[in-house]
Amino acid sequence: MTDRIVKFIHLTLGALCVVLGFIGVFLPVMPTTIFLILAAFFFTKGSPRLRQWLLDHGHFGPGIRAWEETGAIPRRIKALSITMMLSSFIPTLILRIAPLFLGLQATLIAIGALYILTRPDA
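^ that's the sequence the OP posted. Answer follows.
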């Protein structure tokens, strides 16, 4: 592939991640930060100017920089993430979903929570 095509693909993926992150600001089931971290990654080759805009953003920039530098997640975000995971499990219990799916969901939540808890604090 030519450099222009690679740059276009990275720019497009970065823009898509920004849009998904923006949607995540308003929908509690959509993550915001991970999409913005991905956008910063894609903008590295697609648009360094847009990457810098993300890093300089007053609200999202510090979290992106903390993740890139140390893989850190702020304690408040850790608590919110795990609370949301557990909250998503409650409807499964109320609706009496089949034990197989209940176990699968519980396992995935446990893995996700463990990963979040093992990241350094920002």
